[in-house]
Amino acid sequence: MQFLRKLGPGLLFAGAAIGVSHLVQSTRAGAEYGYGLLWALFVIHLFKYPFFQFGPRYAIATGESLLQGYQRLGRGVLLAYFILTMATMFTIQTAVTIVTAGLAVNLFGISTSPVTWSIAITAISTAILLLGHYKLLDRLMKYIVLLLSLCTLTAVIIAFGGGSVPDFGQVFPTESASIAFLIAFMGWMPAPMDISVWHSLWAIEKKKLEPQYNSKKALGDFNLGYFSTIILGVFFVSLGAMVMFGSGKSFSPGAGAFASEFIDLYTSNLGGQTFIVIALAGFTAMFSTTLTTLDASPRSMAQATQLLTGKKTALNFTFWIIILALGTISILLFFLSEMTTLIDIATILSFVTAPFYAIVNFKLVTSRHMPENDQPGKWLRLLSWSGIVFLTGFSIWYITTL
Q1: Judging by beta carbons within 10 Å of its beta carbon (0-12, 13-18, 19+), is residue 2 exposed, middle or buried?
Q2: Residue 401 CB: number of other CB atoms within 10 A?
């Protein structure tokens, strides 16, 4: 447990990432393509790595968040972040909340409307964040990620024990619907790029709690969290591939129906008696994502507002939580029966805005605003340039094929 206590924002990153991208999109990828999209999982992790890493790297080296860094690059960069976040944060919060609500229905056996569940989940999350602040969020996430990891690993081991020989042949989708799914899959794998901003804010909070939290610890913490998203991504693809691929089954668009099918992936391998453990693991994983996004978006918008106006205003953390909660519930009223469509919209938006975050994050950590000794080395710079080219090219390719 001493080891867990030393960990911080890296597991918050993992907790935020191991949600819709893994439970929903990775499982769907395995169910529809078998192991055929593993290449996409590895490629997107590789090319996004430096830009996520720049969040804690910049924060610990300078004592500033990426938002403060964006302001140093120019007011227009910070304003662009503000606009992009306004355009995506409601859809993202809605997507994670409705999946969490669907899992809650199955876990607790109370067939209340997902909207009602969503309101309850949002209220509980808000109370936790306003009363417990970062410290409680940091503690909860460590045990949630550990529980989910153990349950998922056990399920995969038992599934492989069934004797089936997986086909690892890779595929590249060519039909428009398949291309749209590929973009959606990669859009949130392992997470939207703006989480780099959240990570920088969390790193600063961690530094306040533990003054000895230095660059070495921050980057090691990040690498552990990032590596866990890769492993769990493979696990969820594997479960979808082994249980549903070639079976003729497909996931339902409704949140409650999807949650039942997701839980069945586990219980069909581990046995019906494991329902409570699996349902609880799935729910806590999605609840952690709901909780971290509800914390991070308002936290970043509050600071962005303050930086843009040059003074503290009433548009603070509490204000943005209320706005985000009300916006989430409003969207749920209109997209309740089309969960997968809603998620695809959010993930596609995340993917096509990824080049913006990649470019500004790289520009910031290689600028005069970053201490020279803390700037990325040659290999990381090369990977960054490759990532910018990949993300930009892939986004343009997708837009032109719509």
Answers
A1: exposed
A2: 11
Cα 164 from Cα 166, distance rounded (Å): 6
- Is CATH 1.20.1740.10 the classification given to domain 2-400? yes
Give the burial string for 8-21 (b: 16+ CB within 10 Å, else e): bbbbbbbbbbbbbb
The CB density around residue 122, as the number of other CB atoms within 10 Å, is 23
DSSP string, 225-292: HHHHHHHHHHHHHHHHHHHTTTTT----SSHHHHHHHHHHHHHHHH-GGGHHHHHHHHHHHHHHHHHH
- Phi and psi for 174 in degrees, rounded to 5? -120, -25
What is the 8-class DSSP label of residue 37? T
- Residue pLDDT tens, the chain, 402 long: 455 555 677 777 887 777 777 777 888 888 888 888 999 999 999 999 999 999 999 999 999 999 999 999 999 999 999 988 887 788 888 878 888 888 888 777 777 777 888 888 888 888 888 776 666 666 667 677 777 777 777 777 776 765 455 677 788 877 777 877 887 788 778 888 888 999 999 889 888 878 888 888 888 889 988 998 899 889 888 888 887 776 666 666 655 566 777 777 667 666 776 677 777 777 877 888 888 888 889 989 999 999 998 877 767 888 898 899 888 888 877 766 665 666 666 666 777 788 989 999 999 999 999 998 999 999 999 999 999 999 998 888 777 765
Q: How far is CA 133 from CA 7, 198, 306, in A?
A: 17, 14, 20
Angular region, 313: left φ>0, alpha ψ -120 to 50, beta rest: beta
What lies within 8 Å, CB to CB, of 336 at 6+ separation is 98, 114, 115, 254, 255
User: Are the C-beta atoms of residues 162 and 242 closer than 8 Å to each other?
Assistant: yes
Neighbours of 288 (CB within 10 A): 28
Query: Among all chains, which residue has been given the structure tokens 């019906």?
Result: 272
Q: Hey, how many other C-beta atoms are within 10 angstroms of the C-beta on 141? A: 27
Nearest CA to 382 among 366, 368, 396, 395? 366
For residue 50, give the H/E element and its range. helix 38-62
DSSP one-letter code for 244: T
